[in-house]
Amino acid sequence: PELAKNLLDVVKYKVQDHSGEILTEAYVKMVSLKPSWTSFTHEGENYSVTFGPKPITLPFGLYLNAFELERYPGSQSPASYASEVMVMDHTEEFPYRIFMNNVLDYSGFRFYQSSYDTDEKGTILSVNQDRPGTYITYLGYLLLTVGMFLTLFAKGSRFNILNTKLGKIKKAAASFIIFLSISATIVAQEAPAIKSVVVPLEQAEAYGNLIVQDLDGRMKPLNTLANEITRKLTGETYLSLPTGDGRIRLSPEQFLLAVQMDPTAFSELAVIKIDKFKSVEVFQSLGIASTNRISFQNFLDDEGNYRIQELVEKANQLKPSERNEGHNELLKTDERFNIFYGLLTGDFLRLFPNKLDGNNTWFTGQQYMQGFDEEDAVFVKNITPLYLQALGKGIAEGTWDEAEETLAYIALYQEKIGEEVYPTSNEIKAELLYNQLNLGTRLFGLFWLLGIVLLFLGILMLFNHGRVWRKIWFGGEVIAWIGFLTFTFHLSLRWYIAKHPPWSDGFEMLVFVAWGVLLFGLLFSNKSKFTLPLGLLFSGTLLFVGFLDWLNPEITNLMPVLNSYWLKIHVAIIVSSYAPLALAAIIALLSLMLTIFKPKNPGKQWWNNIRELQMVNEMSITIGLFLLAVGTFLGGVWANESWGRYWAWDPKETWALISVIVYAFVLHLRLIPKFKDGLVFNLASLWAFSSIIMTSFGVNYYLSGLHSYAAGDPVPVPMWVYWVVMALLTVSVLAAFKYKNLKEEEVKQLVV
């Protein structure tokens, strides 16, 4: 049985006698419930043998009344699937609904919704029968969790000893700062006639209040879609274009309306973002000079053919691991071209619900023939042209009554015909507020600036503890707390809008870790002044990285298995563990830098500072390891409650276990005499974080499994990753070289 990882495996089995002679061997496909028998003769006796799953008869009947598959509105993506069954026993008979994360418990058996037949007429349930063992396992998890929690407060525990030592050390530190400045120049051709199709901001915002259905079936304000399209096409939140007498700045809704009102003019404007350094081959194919933006028409020849079609096909034929940066930028450019084409044709504007459609699908104005009744078809076909015509009249005459009345008709049609999926007014207001505040892209600058200021101030306070500097430091702490509360509001708002916790994908996980790093930086600020500026800088950096092109910040629907309260518990604890572990890695890097730049004759404050950082480092790892272990336990509970098994050696599960083992080893290095020094501990805590990076990102994009987003072929590793690794290796080698030259009494100072 250990050879069969699933029911589709083909297993080879052998029958041997005591001497080891092979009597027979055969191959059996495990999917067959009817075992195939193999016959052979041995010492004059005839034998038959088989190998495979053993059919077990239930002591009661289970009848499938119906299998139900629900999809997200207007999408083929499953939102949930369930089995309506009838339990039939000698003494009772009752119906039950089995779906993901909701199991049937009866007569000691547990039935889990596992999958379904491709024709969607049959269901696949997994079964187990081990309730007493489940209770014992859960009790073990609970006792381990309680034990770890108590060690944080128990007298004589390592954590308590470190906390006591920290209280006796005078807080002092030194640090270093790296400041990066990034600038970009955008060139665009003049657009003198654009003002004639730009509606006032107030009218555009009213248009953004309409509801649209995206390709995954999520209902959202048109304002959200406009922001997503504008950011994807131009790389900016607002589109700035030169005109004959200056520049004009268009909001996302103004941009969408202007394109619909004059598609020809906008197809000739340079609005499509392109990387001129990575897209040399594209510019050569198009026969134009390198620039930061090009127009839609630049991609087409005189006959309307797509000029880079051949290049795109060649790039798509390559495996992701074989593509270079130029190939990836080419595919991004192709995606932007298709988005703009969809904008010109109206394919993204699924504004009109169809009361005859059973899946609550919404359609564009061009799809008025898609099963609408005659009256609705006339409305859907004509209302958008009428609205655009009314906007043109408003621009020319300055009167907007007709446009506002037409827009009101569209909004009323959406609300009445699409009432089953139409968001509530509070949900619409919340998402509009979320888009307007755009806190994610605004907070990282504040965190960077405040972190740098507090680092400078911390260095200054090493030599001058004046009252003025303490007051400024206190003011910085207050601003940091305000920033944290604002960050918390941002996450809460996203939670409310998405209807699920904001840690369900790569982007949300990165943002949540940024929130956790700042939280732990604030909580440890009374232990060491430099945890707060480090927390601010690292949190700001994670936010900055999160909003780069390689992660998708859009709010999306959940997979069926994630639609569970376990997502709030298990994933929150797991991701929360990354924050203190990330903080520990940053502290370790700072400690190594302090070792490299050690003064010739450092004073007591210098050594106190390094020992203080090392203690905070170990305490952070302790908290992070406990959270990671508890989160892994809860992952096993979730898996058992959802699928009837605790562990399946899925890549994510395996790497979570590896991370637990790695950090447990780091914490216990001090018990090995040869490794009981500050250098080994800092190096270990710095490089141990690579296991977390592999668990949280590497598995998602390089390994296929239940928890991952990978499709099989790994994507290329970004070039900046190699540079970061080289920089950290350089710091590690220099610190080790400097450490070897320390005096014996100085080495003892680094032992905690």
Overall description:
- There is one protein chain.
- The radius of gyration is 31 Å and the shape is globular.
- Residues 1-9, 170-192 and 708-713 have low confidence and may be disordered.
- With 752 residues, it is of the alpha+beta class.
- The strands form eight sheets. Strands 5-6-7 form a three-stranded antiparallel β-sheet, with no helix packed on it. The protein has a three-stranded antiparallel β-sheet with strand order 8-9-10, with helices on one face. A two-stranded antiparallel ribbon has the order 1-2.
- 52% of the residues lie in helices and 13% in strands.
- A hairpin with a 2-residue loop joins strand 13 and strand 14.
- The protein has 22 helices and 18 strands.
- The chain has helices at 131-151, 158-168, 201-208, 222-234, 252-261, 263-267, 280-286, 309-317, 325-345, 374-397, 401-417, 425-437, 439-463, 467-498, 506-523, 531-546, 565-596, 604-643, 651-667, 678-702, 719-740, 744-749, and strands at 10-16, 22-29, 38-42, 45-49, 61-71, 78-88, 93-99, 104-106, 109-116, 123-128, 211-213, 219-221, 239-243, 246-250, 270-273, 293-295, 352-353, 362-363.
- The longest helix is centred in the last third of the chain and has 40 residues, at 604-643.
Quick structural overview:
The protein has 22 helices and 18 strands. With 752 residues, the chain is an alpha+beta fold.
Characteristics of this structure?
752 residues, 52% helix, alpha+beta, three-stranded antiparallel sheet, disordered N terminus
